[in-house]
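How a chain folds remains the central question behind the approach discussed here. No coordinates are needed to read the tokens, only the vocabulary itself. For completeness, the protein is quoted in full, as a sequence line and a line of structure tokens:
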Amino acid sequence: MSIYLMILIFAVGVVLVVKGGDVFVDAASKIATELHIPKFLIGATIVSLATTLPELMVSSFAAAGGQSDMAVGNAVGSVIGNQGLIMAIAMIFMDYVCKRKDYFVQSLILLISVCLLFITGRDGSVSLAANIVFVILFFVYMYVNVKNAKNAMKEGKANEDENIEQKALGKEFLLFALGAVMIVFGSRFMVNSGTGIAEYFKVPERVIAVTIVAIGTSLPELVTTITAIAKKEPSLSIGNIIGANILNVTMIMPVASFISAGGLKISEGAMTLDLPWMVGITILAIVPIMIKERSYKLQGYLMLAAYAVYLAMVI
């Protein structure tokens, strides 16, 4: 495939992702409003599940092909990029305030997950015990979100015509699915062509994984955040990022480990650079919100600066 065709495919991917993101966020916001569910929970569940599909596909295909660096680098790089770039942008342009009870458990699960990945990764692989804990954390995370969503629906359920509500919801779920499909396919086009462009210029696999592929598969989160900024929906954006990061570790790592015949190996570069930075930037992103129940512009600038330093060290 020529370099010009790869650039054209990349451009098509951009169009799909941008338009899909607009449809996606609009539908998710309306679903949350109709069902009386806090937008943080919508972001942390169905939105994060949909936007994590590109990471899941890329890491799974990479693991099946024996490319551990690509599988691990994509998941870890996405966690770093989601916070150092995407959440940082959200914090800089939006004031995020949320009740601690709405996100404390989710934030704690994220912190535990990244710390566990760092610990198991120091031995050069993702252990079976760690994968079992990841799966348990995944189900705990989903259970807490579903329980909270049900409680919110009971508390806020309005006396409306059920038929009208269901008809409206049916349309929004269709638009939500359409937006998700556009984002996933657009991201796939961008990742494939972006990787091809990088390989054309002889860039190493791990560097491709934690930069171009990780950022490419995180484009749904980025588009969701940019659209949320334009539509003033900070809870939807932050919830999406926290949820996506939890899924990157607790869902993608076990799935990729299961698919990989020889188990997922952690490279020296990942052990010494990627995993420590993942833990550090997660603490910087999450702990202040857990303590103060809000984010700060300064926090966003610090995270963005940390991400820039990380990229400079990788490249």
About this structure: The two ends are 25 Å apart (CA to CA). The mean pLDDT is 83. Residues 162-200 form the longest helix (39 residues).
